[in-house]
Amino acid sequence: MRTVDAGGSFLKTLQGIDSHFMAGSWILSLGLLLAWYNLTRWQRSRLDHDSTPFRFSIRFFPSVWALDFWAVFIFFIGAIIEVNSVYTGIPEANLQHSGIYSAYMFFALVGICTVRGVALPPASKEAAFLVAIALEWISIKNHHLPSPLHNAMHMCFLYGISFGVIGVFSVLVQNATVRPASPHFPPMSCSVLPGLLLCFSLILQGTWNIQITTIVQQPWINAWNLNSPEHVLLIMSYWCFHAIFAAALLFVLVLVTERVVKCKLRKDKTAFQIHSSAIATRKAASLEAGGRATPLTVQIPTSAKNM
Q1: Torsion angle of alpha carbons 68, 70, 76, 81, nearest 10°?
Q2: Contact status, residue 111 vs residue 70, Cβ threshold 8 Å
Q3: What residue ranges do the domains of the chain occupy?
Q4: Taking a C-beta distance cutoff of 8 angstroms, is the pair 76, 111 a contact?
Q5: Inter-axis angle of helices 67-86 and 91-115, to 10 degrees?
Q6: How far apart (Å, rounded) are the C-alpha atoms in residues 178 and 53?
Q7: Strand, coil or helix: what is 306?
Q8: Alpha-carbon gap, residue 70 to 15, rounded angstroms
Q9: Cα-atom radius of gyration of the chain, to the nearest Å?
Q10: Cβ partners under 8 Å of residue 99, min gap 6
Q11: Does residue 114 sit in helix, strand or coil?
Q12: Do 225 and 232 meet the contact criterion of CB atoms below 8 Å apart?
């Protein structure tokens, strides 16, 4: 009698897509959203001197209801369900992946609380994200696989996570030690580079996960020799090109966000001038209609002038 997997798995029903592709696409999207959100804010603080000083924030898009963090939380719930459906005969793998995903769910909860105004210490989001990505690094570091090719793939993934650990730690220190505004010390913008290192890590992890799909899945796996040193070297070369692509993509985003913010500021300035002109016109018309178009002159007494 054939048994039916009642729990099912969304990713298991999409075997042609593979979980690495789904996870990679998700991580890549988060990296791009994080970079776009913070680069536009940084460009505005640089181009508009009246704007709020820049401070890197682990937000993926603005939402008063913290929809970005809710999306992260729900995604990792699905990931835990998926991994427990796939690795039914390997409970250790279930435990390992579920632990990593739970850490990111905790980060999402901290983010939701921060957005909703819960009193938390400064840089709590960054601290929670550091805990999650550090646990992921430790888990991948001790994730040994049977073939040199599989180990090389996971070591490349580990290198990408390492950039994220350094980046989020730098953002945490920067945000936790930022000087509060005071009459003697005006607020200053923080550097965007530590945050961009975190974005670089997420983009690199995302594209590398998608690359893994073309190595471990059919029909591509038939073209690889799992024990060949040459193929291990080829994997490392692929990863270097992924790193260059991630850096180039961030460079393009810097240029694009600068142009977008400049256009937005120009439109805001034009709209303000039109609005001011309209107000002045209406005011002049109302003065003329009331017979007070000529400005009133006030005679100042001579004694007042000599005071």
Answers
A1: -140
A2: no
A3: 12-178+210-270
A4: no
A5: 170
A6: 11
A7: coil
A8: 27
A9: 28
A10: 135, 139
A11: helix
A12: no
Alpha helices per DSSP H over 224-291: 229-289
Both tokens of 119, joined, read: 């009193």
Distance CA 117, CA 111 (A): 10
Model confidence, pTM: 0.81
d(C-alpha 280, C-alpha 260), whole Å: 30
Residue 235 CA to residue 61 CA, distance in Å, equals 34
Biggest CA–CA distance in the chain, Å, is: 113
Over residues 36-93, the pLDDT tens digits come to 999 999 999 999 888 888 999 999 998 888 999 999 999 999 888 877 776 656 666 6
For residues 252 and 35, give the distance between their C-alpha atoms in angstroms, rounded to a whole number: 11
Q: Which residues of 217-254 are buried (b: 16+ CB within 10 A; e: fewer)?
A: beeeeeebebeeeebbeebeebbeebbeebeebbeebe
